[in-house]
Amino acid sequence: MPGFLGSERQFSETYSKPINMSRDPKSATKDQEAGALAMESLHRQVLPFLLRRMKEDVLNDLPPKIIQDYYCALTPLQKQLYEQYSENVESADLKSESEVHVFQSLQFLRKICNHPILVLPKTHEMYPKLECADSYTYSGKLMALNQLLLDCGIGSQVVSPHRALVFCQLKSMLDVVERYLLKQHMPMSRISEWTDRLRQQRGYL
């Protein structure tokens, strides 16, 4: 359907630019909101044309997919930051001249739940400790991920034939997982949009 998503220029202005800008870790809240809206709009446009194939349509001998929710407890530092921010937001809500956007608050709380290093400034007294070898112990998610990998025999001293795929929605969180957990404890490879761009620049794709 030529023209369904507009011309190349229209598509770039409406979807590509705001989505790419929102993925920048240093992007402003306004840019992140615009990117989220553009992504949602694009999904609504193309969803009727997406064909989803079930496992049995691809390969009959694949084992059944098992979905398991794994709950992670916050570390003491994460709890402290979470409660402090919640109290600050409640105080700000009581003042009509100071409004905190809901999306901005959710993003900040989400980063706290991922790892404190995503929200603490480098001048904070705890920041040097968050850059040490056991930095993953300050994040409930990373400790849970580490234990799951160990349960699969990945990361232990014994060579394991198993492999695991770890997905992150935020590039900044993927950087943390790679630096403070995977690289220090197990061999790993990384695939992201930045990897593809670099390969394209070097003529690999």
Protein architecture, described:
- There is one protein chain.
- The protein is mainly alpha-helical.
- Helices cover 53% and strands 0% of the residues.
- It has nine helices and no strands.
- The protein has helices at 8-22, 29-46, 55-58, 76-93, 102-114, 127-130, 140-151, 171-185, 193-201.
- The longest helix is centred in the first third of the chain and has 18 residues, at 29-46.
- The radius of gyration is 21 Å and the shape is globular.
- The model is unreliable at 198-205 (pLDDT under 50).
Uncertain segments are 198-205
What is the H-and-E element order? HHHHHHHHH
Total strand segments: 0
Helix content: 40-55%
The whole-number mean of residue pLDDT values reads 80
Q: How does the major sheet shape up?
A: none
Rg of Cα set: 21 Å
Structural class, from secondary structure content?
mainly alpha
Total helices: the number is 9
Strand content: under 5%
Distance between termini? 27 Å
Helices and strands, with pairings:
Layout: H1 8-22, H2 29-46, H3 55-58, H4 76-93, H5 102-114, H6 127-130, H7 140-151, H8 171-185, H9 193-201
Helix pairs in contact: 1-2, 4-5
Keywords:
single chain, 205 residues, mainly alpha, 9 helices, disordered C terminus
Question: Would you kindly provide a brief summary of this structure?
Answer:
This protein has 205 residues and is mainly alpha-helical. The protein has helices at 8-22, 29-46, 55-58, 76-93, 102-114, 127-130, 140-151, 171-185, 193-201.
